[in-house]
Amino acid sequence: MDIDDRIALSQNIPVANVAGVGAIRFFTNVADTETSGFDVVAAYRNEGWHFSAAYNDTETDVVNNPDRAIFGIEERNTYETAAPESKLILTGSWSNDRISALVRATQFGETERIFDFGGGFEPQQVYGEEWIIDADVRYAINDNWDIAVGAANLLDEYPDESIFDISYFGNLPYDSIPPSGVNGRYLYMETSFSY
Question: Percent helix, strand, coil in the chain (nearest 5)?
Answer without folding.
Answer: 5, 50, 45
